[in-house]
Structure formats: structure tokens, C-alpha cells
Design brief:
By secondary structure, the protein is α/β, with parallel strands linked by helices. It is built from twelve helices and 21 strands. The protein folds into two domains: about 45 residues; about 375 residues, Alkaline Phosphatase, subunit A, CATH 3.40.720. It is globular and about 105 Å long.
């Protein structure tokens, strides 16, 4: 083989000499590549986006100073009746027993879900009375929460796009009435990361009384097209709260750590080849987080070391509300330890197993209010006492409201109403003791200062220091965001 020339004559190399020369050159090329990869990795680590690529759950800067750091969403599953809870409608007394078409000739049977069971207008079976310094009229089913209305901002003009549970649940959670999109908790943890390195950034708790999951199941706390590390971690209502939380005896200790180290090194080798790959970084972090959770999670969800006074405050031990009291107390313990977003579902699959009061609205709502009233009030008081309410946004909301008419049956209920619902927010930069928006005089439609779900989501993100128009993720060639192409912050409820 011919090499370079010397004195005008080519140098002849044998095979061994050629391989030595070529091998040395390839080695330098490899070293240059490694140095370039290291330089690129260091450059990534120096930028916020790079920090996300190296650790997807690393805390991220906000767009502007945040009022809230954490969210606890009390999800009133099934669709609570606003006219029987927080939206006092004395005119229903006047209209009671009359056809809704006398009030609204354009009413359509398809507004609700059972179009052949539409009865007459029905007054609330519950008494309302003024509570707090603000004088908010509150249903008798909330004796404990009524003590905290001066902390709450009420939205009485919410509306949604579906009268069916699954799409309405998706709409409230993701901003879209169909599955496959990231939910609010996933967007928040994607945008802000987590303050805890040993617990998930987003935790979900569901009904522990055997009444099932909300319709749509885990799609309600899905990360959608975001990296999987941002999806909600579901604490199972019975048995071991998290699957595989306790490792098998034969895999515990150094052996498990060695296995994870091997897996991490293999994934990191791929990560070096594909810098900035968030899916790969999320997979690495998921394995590591699962390992760290085995030590941290049992302590975080164990309420037995809380004082007896704290247990009494939440209602732990009271048969009607013990299950929800425990979940609310766990929620406080989680946000104390840096968890970013906690969602607790009251009620299970449907009808009498949730707030879906198609039959016996009086019995249904009295039951579920009895399960949640003291625990949620205890949560608000406990957060305030500990100085945590100022940095924790608490939300009470379901997927839609209910009609002011009776649903025909032995014990009258109320059908679904997508045209109006009530939500309240407390803590975390919210102005307490105020009401925003109005429904019409019977609570059928939102009329004044109407609030779309995009507006509610924009307001939640704003309180967390996030500009909802700038929190985006590119998927299938399009920049998606929680609020889609809408959303307006409700400034009137901000402190």
C-alpha cells in the first residue's frame, strides 16, 4: 500500500503499518467526538432546558413571580349541583313546580342526559344561610366549610362543552373533551418540575370505599404526549398504595442498586448519543424516582404520627368521613415534602356512587357533603395554621353542574348541566370572600362574566407563575398548550 512520499518517492507500507497509522487517526477522531459531546452536555447543563434534559423533574424558573407553589384539587366527581351547594337561587322558590319552558322557551331535552325524564323546576331541598364576614349564602350541607368562605373565591359562571361524564372529565382535566391530552397536573409538573427528589411531582387519590374510579379512569391524570414522568402517580385506595413499593426480598439492598446502576449506565450511553432527548431522560428519572420512593413514600403517606388534635381536625375516625379525612391529611403531608400537584377524587364511577345525583339529590348530596365537608375544612385550617395556605392553591370543582329541574323518579334528582357550574379557589394568591360571575335567576345558564374551562386553567397557571400562552410542547408538528387557543386569566379573583 502507498503512504506519503519521501524525496518524491512513495513510501510503501505493509498492512500492519497501515493499520497502525489509520488506527491512531481514528482514535483522535473518537477523542474529538467525545470532547465535543462533553462540551455539548456541559452547555446543556448550564441552561434551563438542558437541566430539564438531564433531570426532567428539576425545578424550573417561573415566567413571573408565583403566588402559589403547590396545588390541591378536590375533584367533586359526578357533577355537583351548584344550586344546592354554593349558588343560592331564591327565585327557584317562585318557579318551583313550573315548566322550565315558561322560563326559557328554547330549553332542549338534550341539555341533560336523560331527555325523557325532565320534570318541573325544583327548589333546593336544603336551607341556605349567610356565612362569614362576606355573608356568603351557603347550603346547610357544609357546616364546616361555611366557616371558611372568607378564604374562598367563588366562580358562579363556569360552563363546559359536554353533558357526558367522560368527555366532561377530560375537558375539566385537560382542556379537551377527548382522551390523549396532558392534564393540568402533568402540565404544571412539566412547567415547574418538583421540589421533591424522592416523591412524584403529581399524585392522585381516588375513592377508597369500593365505588370505583372516575369515568375515563387513568386518562384523567395522564401525561398525554408529554414525557411519561409527568403523569399522575395514583395512590391505590386499597392495599399497597403504590405497586412494587416494597421490593422483593431477593432484590433488596445493594443488588437492586447494582441493577439500577447498570440500567442507568446503558440509558446514559444512549443519552450521550441523543442529547436533549426528553423521553429518554424521563425514562432514566422514572427508574431512579421509583427506587427513591421506596424509602420516602411510606413515611410521607403514614399519618399515624400526626397528633390526635390533627386527626380530630380532619375528621379521622368519624365513620362517615374517615376515608376522605385521611386522604386530605396525606395531601398536606405530600405538599409539605415538595409534591407539586395533588388531586383527590370524591366519589366513584357514577350515579349514587358519586355526586351524580340523578335520583334523590337530597340524599346523594347530603351523603357526599358529609364525607368531604369536615376533611376539606380541616385541610384549609391546617394549611393556614402552618403557613402553607399562602403558597398552596386549593380548588373545589367537578366536571359540570346540574339542572334546576327535577329528574323524574320516586325521589327526584337532577340531571347534568354543562351550561353552568360553580367552583371555588382558596389560598395561593386568591382573593377571599368574593364571588365572580353570575348564572341566571334559576341557575340554568352562566350569564354574567362567563368562565370557560380554558379561563380556569389560565388562572391556575397564572397563580403558579406561568404564562399559559408560553407553556407549550411541540407534538405532531404543532405547539400545544393546556389552554389550546383560548384562555383568559380571571383577574378579579386574584389578591
Amino acid at each position: 500500500m502507498r503512504g506519503n512520499t519521501r524525496c518524491g518517492r512513495p513510501i510503501l507500507w505493509d498492512r500492519r503499518q497501515w493499520l497502525q497509522q489509520a488506527g491512531a487517526g481514528c482514535g483522535w477522531l473518537g477523542l474529538i467526538g467525545l470532547l465535543w459531546d462533553e462540551q455539548r452536555r456541559q452547555a446543556q447543563a448550564a441552561s434551563p432546558l438542558g437541566k430539564r434534559a438531564l433531570n426532567p423533574m428539576a425545578p424550573q424558573p417561573t415566567h413571573f413571580p408565583a403566588k402559589a407553589k403547590h396545588v390541591i384539587w378536590i375533584f367533586i366527581n359526578g357533577g355537583p349541583s351548584h344550586v344546592d351547594t354554593w349558588d343560592y337561587k331564591p327565585a327557584l322558590e317562585k318557579w318551583h313546580g313550573k315548566s322550565i319552558r315558561e322560563f326559557d322557551p328554547d330549553f332542549k331535552n338534550t341539555t341533560g342526559f336523560f331527555k325523557n325524564a325532565v320534570g318541573s323546576l325544583m327548589k333546593s331541598p336544603f336551607r341556605f344561610s349567610p356565612r362569614g364576614e362576606c355573608g356568603k349564602m351557603v347550603s346547610e350541607i357544609f357546616p364546616y366549610l361555611g366557616e371558611h368562605v372568607d378564604k374562598m373565591a367563588f366562580i358562579h359562571s363556569g360552563f363546559t362543552e359536554s353533558n357526558n361524564h367522560s368527555p366532561a372529565l377530560f375537558m375539566m382535566n385537560t382542556g379537551f373533551p377527548r382522551m390523549g391530552y396532558p392534564c393540568v397536573g402533568a402540565w404544571v409538573t412539566y412547567g415547574l418540575g418538583s421540589e421533591s427528589q424522592n416523591l412524584p411531582g403529581f399524585v392522585v387519590m381516588t375513592d377508597p370505599k369500593g365505588r370505583g374510579l372516575p369515568k375515563g379512569h387513568a386518562a384523567n391524570w395522564s401525561a398525554g404526549f408529554l414525557p411519561g414522568v409527568y403523569q399522575g402517580t395514583h395512590l391505590r385506595p386499597a392495599g399497597q398504595p403504590i405497586e412494587n413499593l416494597v421490593p422483593p426480598a431477593e432484590l433488596a439492598g445493594p443488588l437492586q442498586r447494582a441493577q439500577l446502576d447498570l440500567l442507568r449506565s446503558m440509558n446514559q450511553y444512549e443519552a450521550a448519543r441523543l442529547p436533549g432527548d426528553e423521553e429518554l431522560a424521563a425514562r432514566i428519572e422514572s427508574f431512579e424516582l421509583a427506587f427513591r420512593m421506596q424509602a420516602a413514600a411510606p413515611e410521607a403517606i403514614d399519618i399515624e404520627n400526626e397528633t390526635e388534635a390533627t386527626h380530630r381536625l380532619y375528621g379521622v375516625g368519624r365513620p362517615e368521613c374517615d376515608h376522605f379525612a385521611r386522604q386530605c391529611l396525606v395531601a398536606r403531608r405530600l405538599i409539605e415534602r415538595g409534591v407539586r400537584f395533588v388531586q383527590i377524587y370524591s366519589g366513584g364511577m357514577e350515579n349514587q356512587r358519586s355526586w351524580d345525583g340523578h335520583a334523590d339529590i337530597q340524599g346523594n348530596h347530603a351523603q357526599f357533603a358529609g364525607e368531604t365537608d369536615q376533611p376539606v375544612a380541616g385541610l384549609l385550617q391546617d394549611l393556614a395554621q402552618r403557613g402553607l395556605l399562602e403558597e398552596t392553591l386549593v380548588i373545589w370543582c367537578g366536571e359540570f353542574g346540574r339542572l334546576p329541574v327535577a329528574q323524574i323518579g320516586d325521589k327526584p334528582g337532577r340531571d347534568h348541566n354543562p351550561h353552568c357550574f360553580t367552583a371555588w379557589l382558596a389560598g395561593g394568591g386568591v382573593r377571599g370572600g368574593v364571588s365572580y360571575g353570575e348564572s341566571d335567576e334559576i341557575g340554568y345558564r352562566a350569564e354574567v362574566n362567563r368562565v370557560h374551562i380554558n379561563d380556569l386553567h389560565a388562572t391556575i397557571l397564572h397563580l403558579l407563575g406561568i404564562d399559559h400562552t408560553r407553556l407549550t410542547f411541540k407534538y405532531n408538528g404543532r405547539q400545544f398548550r393546556l389552554t389550546d387557543v383560548g384562555g383568559k386569566v380571571i383577574d378579579a379573583i386574584l389578591a
